[in-house]
Amino acid sequence: MPKEGRPLSGFGLFLLGSLALGCSVLAQQRPSFPLTHFKLRNGLQVILSEDFSLPLVSVAVAYDVGSVYEVSGKTGLAYLMENLMFSGSANVSPRAHINYINRAGGQFNAAASEDMTLFYQTVPSNQLALVLWLESDRMKSLELSEAEFEKARNDHLDDLRQRKMADPYLESSLSFDQLLYSDFAYSHPLLGTEDDVRNLTLDDVKSFYSTYYVPNNAVLCITGNFNKLKATELVARYFETIPAGKTVSPSLEPWIYTKKQVLKSFENVLASAPAFHLGFRIGSPSSNDFYVLSIIDYILLRGQSSRLTRRLMNRNNKIAYQLSGGIEKKKDRAVYKIFGVVNTPMMADQCLEAIFSELDRLKTAFLSEDELARYKNMFKQDYLGRFSSSMEKAIFLCESYLTIRNFDDLPLELDRYLNVTKNDIVGIINRYFTADNSIVLNIKTK
Amino acid sequence: MKKIWVSLGIWAVFSGTALFSQQEKFRKSAPPSEPLQELKLPPIESAPLSNKLNISFVLRDNVPFMSLEIVIFAGEALSPDKIPGTATFVAGMLGRGTQSRTAADIEGIVESIGGTFSVSTNQDYVLVSFHFFPEYLDQVLDLISQMLLQPNFTKSEIDYVKFATTYDLLGRERNLEFVANRHLFRLLFKNHPYEKFAFSSDVIKNWNLNALLDFFDRYYRPNNAHLIITGNLNLNTVTRKVSHYLNTWQPRELPPMPLQTVKPPDKDRLCLIDVPQAKDCVIYFGTAFPSPGTQDRFALMVLNQVLGGTPTSRLFMNLRESKAFAYNALSEIDFFNAGGVFCAQARVTPEFIAPSIREIQKEIKALTTSPISSQEIEQAKSYLIYHFPVKIERLDAFSEKVADIKARSGGDECWNKYYEQVMLVNGERVFGAAQKYLLQPFIVVVAGDKSVLSERLLELDSFDVFDSKGQFQYLVNKDKKGAAHEAR
User: Fold this and answer.
1) Is there a contact between A130 and B395 if contact means CB atoms under 8 Å apart?
2) CA proximity to B458, closest of B482, B432, B437
3) Which of A417, B224, B228, B463 could disulfide-link B69, Cβ–Cβ 3.0 to 4.6 Å?
4) Is the pLDDT of residue B483 over 70?
5) Residue pLDDT, tens place only, A380-389
6) Domains of chain A
7) Where are the alpha helices (DSSP H) in B25-175?
8) Of B30, B37, B64, the CB nearest to A225
């Protein structure tokens, strides 16, 4: 049975209406749902959140592992492992996991990132035991055969080739990452390199699985329509006898960098139009700066009315034909990336000039109350949008558990973003969005 | 004494092992399902305004957002015959400015209230959707009122919408599935008003201000619309607020809008859309039929589920898992106001095009010749029942479902009696539906590289070749010696 059980203070719905807190029309709504979390004896973290609106239940299992844990010469393991998790376990034949979920009318998916690997599914609430059985079986006893491994590796290599063909700017993006992140762990591609993937062995995969796919390196979250007591019993039944693995100690070096402008160019034979990558190293996701940086992301690039979108993509004076970017966070570090496609190399220079001029404006002039309220509302919409379904909520809770400093503070998180002030923004823009902290990679076509 | 300890030790080892294996027995097989929980959906409450605008409200508490949908019964079927796409054009202009606000202002307002705004058009209706925080309902209604009552269709915005739609369509025309599906739709609805829904980018140049104004004035009327609000409120408040903003929206006598019944194709036909250098190819295999009654509708849904509703259905298991011909294979059924379409589709490698088409034909024929096992029927029904709440869980999907029910005159059988209706389906009804709807002619559209596919398709039959825009090029047939001939 669970070692400790502690209900988290509920996410009581707390509506303040229009506030006089420096934002004219911003209502500070918190998501409202019950939340309990506890740890099993084997170290598996369990999060439960009930919602009786519909007869559905979602289960997400997040493993605290991603490509940043890969070593040189063995890249692509985390992504390959995600696919191999469907290749069968002691009591579930290959791909039967998918069939079970389909037959139950459910939906499922999985995702590997740099710092996390997630498996999630939604099923009718009478099928909770089925999903826990499936997830526990692959956590306890994944069966990795040579044939399944070969198949997954070939699919992975196909995927790598297809992505390369589909995205003419992929290679320059990878080069840009090497400029932004100085160390191997963070700068190598999530899918790995073709050579590395081709040389991976079944033993590599088995070792990766036995090291990281252990209960003490995972979070299990159940959301939706279920009985808490019964769910706790089921979790204990299926997961408690899975042995803990060795303690996974992150071997990641702290990020120490000196501010220095980097300007490079990249000759891209695949791309038909010139482009540019611009990046800034910014505050760690666990720092207080990150709340401000998240709002700055909306000010700069989110939505049609964001500053850079209006400036560079203005219908009457368009200087970029494609503009994207935002915060990229990986474990303890984060960067801000901007990518633009232009018609001529001269327009890339114009874009960079325009971006720095917008940043200068933000450094010297406060945003109006209305403008700040607009960006915060957009942020709030996206934040609360992550509770739109039981599956999204389960994913959000797993991610939050693995990323925020203190999970018990989760109910306060949204307010921390919404309490960002105009002064905070000026301060953070001045701290991180400077020319001497910028990294530019100009992409030239042949 | 020592012997006793040894015996006890042996007993302990064995009993421990026995206990352990007993503990883990539950892992050997999937746990049995518990009884299915009843799905209780909130009722769809409705009330008309004095200007004949119908309002529906559905309570959805425990969500931080609210949804507002407006159905305008002015889909592509009503576009002027000479200007297909007019319905899409007019709908696209809705957010592009009012007498007091520019398009950029509108985008800014929507973003400032943490909302989203979208417009989509289908054969039967236009759906205008807003999702937003509940405290901004008044602002949203005010904006809608301006869009509908004081629109401003400027030349620059017209040019912008025409450009954006062209660009969007040109992008989609690179997608094999889109090209094949659109062509199938054109052939199935040849000379039916629904054909206009499958317009290509060439017609956009004909869109003009006069057609826009005429269409808007004629069809964008409260007596030709239905407004649906979903969220944590009540019908009285909703009606009062909507009335405040939209009661001056003037009704107008609507022109006659006869619904021409959809007919099945008159003969089987094989077509190839040439997409040079395409590495894969796609197959769309479809037939059309008049609107079925409730019984047939649910039987067809089960039938579709058996054939290709999920990756555990017959098509996927055969074409992908067993034969390894296809990347995917599925089937779909769509119901419109004037009829429906049953369509099987697959993406395959060119070398397997002929056997894939034969297998799809075989699978469809099998449904009409031998009854489906009761186990398969029950599995399909379970899926439809179990998956229903998954589909409508998100607020936007939930409110769009309600809008679709209202737009297509669906009743409670599509809502609170959905489970009941699915449960009523049995093997006999499914077999009856298969014989009624699947024995009629089918049109097969293949999209891919002609130079790779031509010979392989000739193994099956003669076929018509079209370019990627859908223009007929020539007919390919075989003479008695098996040589290919092209007839223009």
Assistant:
1) no
2) B482
3) B228
4) yes
5) 999 999 999 9
6) 33-239 (3.30.830.10), 262-445 (3.30.830.10)
7) 86-93, 103-112, 137-149, 155-172
8) B37
Question: What number is the average pLDDT over the span A292-307?
Answer: 96
How far apart (Å, rounded) are the C-alpha atoms in residues A139 and A91? 12
CB-count burial class (<10 Å; 0-12, 13-18, 19+) for A175 = middle
Give the chain A residue nearest B279 (alpha carbons). A162
The pLDDT score that the predictor gives to residue B23 is 53
A374/B contact by beta carbon, under 8 A: yes
Lowest mean pLDDT among A256-260, B179-183, B212-216, B263-267: A256-260
More confident position, B83 or B14: B83
Q: Please list, in sequence order, all residues whose beta carbon lies within 8 angstroms of the beta carbon of residue A158, skipping any fewer than 6 positions away.
A: none
Which of A27, A106, A381 comes nearest B390 by C-beta?
A106
d(CA A341, CA A323): 7
For residue A135, the chain B residues in CB contact (below 8 A) are: none
Q: Read off the pLDDT band of B24 (50, 70, 90).
A: confident
- Residue A397 CA to residue B39 CA, distance in Å, equals 26
Put simply, whether B118 touches A (Cβ < 8 Å) is no
Q: Is A370 on the interface with B (CB under 8 A)?
A: yes
**pLDDT value, residue A405:** 78
Pairing of strands A36-39, A45-50: antiparallel
At residue A120, φ and ψ (nearest 5 deg) are -150, 150
Does residue A96 sit in helix, strand or coil? helix
Residues 173-232 of B with CB under 8 A from A: none
Buried b (16+ CB within 10 A) or exposed e, B134-143: bbbbebbbeb
Nearest by Cα to A373 from B277, B477, B136: B136
Mean pLDDT in residue range A83-92:
96
Q: Which residues contact B174 (CB under 8 A, 6 or more apart)?
A: none
The interface residues of chain A toward chain B in range 9-38, judged by CB-CB distance below 8 A, are: 17, 25, 27, 29, 31-33
Chain B residues touching residue A120 (CB < 8 angstroms): none
Residues near A317 by Cβ (< 8 Å), separated by ≥ 6? none
Q: Which of residues 68-107 of A touch B (CB under 8 A)?
A: 90-91, 98-100, 102-107
Rounded to an integer, what distance in angstroms lies between the CA atom of residue A354 and that of residue A308? 8
Helices (DSSP H) in B248-370: which residue ranges? 294-304, 314-315, 353-369
Q: Which two tokens stand for residue A214?
A: 């252990």
Nearest residue on chain B to A50, judged by CA atoms? B62
* B385/A contact by beta carbon, under 8 A: yes
β-sheet with B54-59: strand ranges across? B45-48, B54-59, B225-231, B66-72, B126-132, B116-121
Residue-level pLDDT at A442: 95
Please name each of the domains of chain B with its CATH number: 45-246 (3.30.830.10), 269-487 (3.30.830.10)
pLDDT recorded at residue A16: 26
Structure-block tokens of residue B328: 């995917």
Contacts of A191 (CB under 8 A, 6+ apart): A76, A79, A156, A159, A160, A163, A197
Which residue of chain B has the CA closest to A103?
B383
Q: Which residue has the tokens 């409705």?
A: B46
Question: Taking a contact as any Cβ pair under 8 Å apart, which residues of chain A between 309 and 328 contact chain B?
Answer: 315
Give B66-106 pLDDT, tens digit per residue.
999 999 999 999 999 999 999 999 999 999 999 999 999 99
Backbone phi, psi, residue A8, to 5°: -80, 145
- The partner residues of A220 in beta bridges, in order of sequence, read A46, A61
How far is residue B468's CA from residue B473's CA, in Å, rounded to a whole number?
A: 10
| Tens digit of each residue's pLDDT (9 = 90 or more) over A184-193 | 889 999 999 9
Q: Looking at the complex, does the CB of residue A304 fall below 8 Å from at least one CB of chain B?
A: yes
